[in-house]
């Protein structure tokens, strides 16, 4: 017997269904089901295309970057590759900020390996998929729906909930706290959650201690909480 694995969620779903209960699986989107690295890289490339001529060497540096080079902050990714002009970094940060949180740009995201099939398998066994994201309504909703569908995640098939943050300004953590109450309102049985932010994963563990809680080892915000030792680490859904 090793530590719990992705397949153990299927066993939990089957057991809940057998008891006549609705199994619920909670999925975060950014850096959990989707890698945002291609979105970040594409935004940097668009800046270099539009303004690269003003900064010596920028187009060459950006041209060499791959999605694997993308971390949490694009300006810090550039700094790692020797870009130190503060004026330039400030412009890049602003350029990124104006694009990252929009329908159009999030369509560049790629699913984390195995994620669509894994979600399909959970759904086919009878789970309600609860997509919970800090992306905000009124700016990212249409792109999110298109992105889920174009990547092959279950969506228009019943038992799929998409819960976005009601406003851009609301803090992610407060939003996810509120979401716990909404998840409970389905009166199902939360069998698993998937998150990349340790703080959120810790919160789900506390809220639903009987479930399996997975922490995606992708990227997370700087200064994140320490992950609880009971969280199950994975880097993909394979
Ligand atoms: Mg996330």
Describe the structure.
- This protein has 238 residues and is of the alpha/beta class.
- The protein has 2 domains: 6-35 and 111-234, Rossmann fold; 37-106.
- It is 44% helix and 17% strand.
- The protein is built from 10 helices and 8 strands.
- The protein has helices at residues 6-18, 37-51, 58-64, 74-80, 86-100, 103-106, 115-124, 141-150, 172-185, 198-207, and strands at 23-28, 34-35, 110-111, 128-136, 160-165, 189-195, 212-216, 232-234.
- The strands form 2 sheets. Strands 5-4-1-6-7-8 form a 6-stranded parallel β-sheet, sandwiched between helices.
- Helix 2 crosses helix 5 (86-100), helix 4 (74-80) packs antiparallel against helix 5 (86-100) and helix 9 packs parallel to helix 10 (198-207).
- The radius of gyration is 19 Å and the shape is elongated.
- The two termini are 19 Å apart.
- The model has no long low-confidence stretch (mean pLDDT 95).
- The site of magnesium ion has 6 residues, from loops.
- Magnesium ion is lined by residues 28, 30-32, 196-197.
SSE succession: HEEHHHHHEHEHEHEHEE
Distinct bound molecules: magnesium ion
CATH architecture of the largest domain: 3-Layer(aba) Sandwich
CATH superfamily of the largest domain: HAD superfamily/HAD-like
**Low-pLDDT segments, ≥5 res:** none
- Gap from first CA to last CA: 19 Å
Number of helices: 10
How many distinct domains? 2
A few lines on this structure:
The protein has 238 residues and is α/β, with parallel strands linked by helices. Helix content is 44%, strand content 17%.
